[in-house]
């Protein structure tokens, strides 16, 4: 812009063109410069991270087996209540992403297919309840593996190369008569996430059940290793900022060329160019109107 001003000053002082033409030349040149600057996408880091999260698919697996009713989260809350709080925080931090919710107990169920509707996710999470004891017939901690595999593959077919995060929330207690199968998921297709553990080693009685449920961190760490994700125990005293830091933040940084949290300024320059060119168009319209022949009597 300084060069444009200098050029205009030189034309005014030393040029032989009429002042009207000089102003037009300066205006058009300034508009071109503004458009070139806008194409460079100027800005700075520090704004919200919605732009980065908009290019993410987030798959959330939540254990809803009877053991998640044990009240040893943050003192006396249920484990499932803790999972609900964390999912709500993750959805808020990753606003703009697409979310898929899968729950599992005796069987796995897709509660919500991939969608940016966080209100639907909140509603689905709010209605979750631990499986009633009378329906419990032994649950596997890896029963959601096949559904996760299918959903990951479908998302990649729809939008190849789109990063995917996986968050697994459970207590690791396997009550199935058979040992948990290995997750049939290719971990190379997962860009980040975390395995979240709820409960305590001492355990606590489950609601409406005459039995004690205990956290099995060994099983959860095994799942984390299979998914190539970090494991984090959730007691209710940790914030989600620390959780997302552990959840491979590089997946967020790589979703856009600008990175997360960038304030864009290109639109200001494009708007300035539009105003300059609009002024030129109006000037030409007035000039053309003045050239119209007058009415004859």
UniProtKB/TrEMBL annotation:
<protein>
    <submittedName>
        <fullName>VWA domain-containing protein</fullName>
    </submittedName>
</protein>
<dbReference type="InterPro" id="IPR002035">
    <property type="entry name" value="VWF_A"/>
</dbReference>
<dbReference type="InterPro" id="IPR036465">
    <property type="entry name" value="vWFA_dom_sf"/>
</dbReference>
<dbReference type="Pfam" id="PF13519">
    <property type="entry name" value="VWA_2"/>
</dbReference>
<feature type="domain" description="VWFA">
    <location>
        <begin position="57"/>
        <end position="247"/>
    </location>
</feature>
């Amino acid at each position: 812009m300084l060069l444009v001003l200098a050029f205009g000053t030189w034309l005014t002082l030393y040029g032989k063109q009429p002042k009207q033409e000089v102003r037009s030349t300066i205006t058009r040149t300034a508009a071109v410069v503004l458009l070139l600057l806008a194409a460079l996408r100027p800005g700075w880091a520090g704004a919200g991270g919605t732009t980065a999260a908009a290019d993410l698919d987030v798959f959330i697996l939540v254990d809803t087996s009877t053991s998640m009713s044990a009240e040893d989260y943050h003192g006396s809350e249920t484990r499932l209540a803790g999972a609900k709080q964390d999912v709500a925080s993750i959805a808020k931090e990753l606003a703009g992403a697409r979310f898929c919710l899968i729950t599992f107990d005796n069987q796995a169920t897709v509660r919500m297919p991939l969608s940016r509707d966080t209100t639907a996710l909140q509603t689905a999470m709010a209605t979750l309840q631990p499986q009633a004891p009378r329906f419990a017939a032994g649950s596997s901690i890896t029963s959601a593996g096949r559904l996760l595999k299918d959903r990951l593959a479908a998302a990649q077919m729809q939008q190849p190369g789109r990063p995917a995060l996986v968050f697994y929330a459970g207590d690791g207690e396997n009550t199935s008569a058979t040992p948990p199968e290995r997750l049939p998921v290719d971990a190379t297709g997962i860009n980040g996430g975390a395995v979240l553990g709820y409960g305590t080693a001492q355990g606590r009685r489950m609601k409406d059940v005459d039995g004690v449920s205990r956290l099995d961190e060994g099983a959860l760490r095994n799942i984390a290793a299979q998914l190539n994700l970090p494991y984090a125990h959730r007691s209710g005293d940790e914030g989600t900022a620390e959780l997302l830091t552990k959840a491979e933040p590089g997946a967020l940084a790589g979703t856009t060329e600008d990175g997360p949290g960038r304030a864009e300024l290109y639109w200001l320059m494009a708007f300035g160019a539009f105003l300059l060119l609009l002024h030129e168009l109006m000037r030409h319209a007035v000039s053309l109107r003045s050239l119209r022949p007058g009415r004859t009597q």
